[in-house]
Design goal:
By secondary structure, this protein is α+β, with helices and mostly antiparallel strands. It has two domains: 1-31; 41-145, no CATH class. 22% of the residues lie in helices and 38% in strands. The chain is built from two helices and nine strands, in the order H-E-E-E-E-E-E-E-E-E-H. The strands form two sheets. A five-stranded antiparallel β-sheet has the order 8-7-6-5-9, with no helix packed on it. The radius of gyration is 20 Å and the shape is elongated.
Length: 154
């Protein structure tokens, strides 16, 4: 009898947890609650420049950012996009002369950055002419989401 009561109580607690999680998922999507930044995809150029790509869920969409940390440690952040579900897997590539980098995903160039002029092209812009899909030197690649996003309530 006591075992049955413990089992019923455990099932009731589990139902509450699932109900709260489900409400949190729906509420997070409707209210566009920002989630946590996902894993960093980090590429380092031989000249010491570090290029980082990250995504975070916001409702049903994502924010995607590109971070450039130069050899002296100065950091610059760029918004790749903020208007739709972003990239789940990216490849960071560089020009042969290492003066430009770009992000590839979903069969296209998603963003490009000239490291000499600081000219950045977001996803919706026309990309720099040297940023071509399938060319360049791969300096990093990886997924931009984490399994924690599945269990978080938003």
């Amino acid at each position: 009898m006591i075992e049955q009561l413990k089992l019923k109580k455990s099932i009731r607690i589990l139902k509450w947890i699932l109900a709260l999680w489900f409400i949190g998922k729906i509420g997070g999507c409707v209210l566009a609650v920002p989630g946590f930044w996902g894993p960093e995809v980090i590429g380092v150029l031989p000249n010491g420049h570090k290029i980082i790509f990250q995504s975070r869920p916001i409702g049903r969409e994502t924010d995607d950012r590109l971070i450039w940390i130069d050899a002296e440690g100065y950091r610059r952040d760029y918004w790749v996009d903020q208007i739709h579900a972003g990239f789940s897997y990216v490849v960071i590539k560089s020009k042969d002369d290492e003066n430009g980098v770009w992000i590839e995903s979903d069969g296209k160039v998603g963003a490009s950055l000239d490291l000499l002029t600081n000219d950045f092209r977001e996803e919706q812009s026309k990309q720099l002419e040297w940023a071509r899909y399938g060319e360049g030197n791969k300096i990093a690649e990886g997924r931009t989401w984490s399994f924690i996003n599945i269990i978080l309530p938003w």
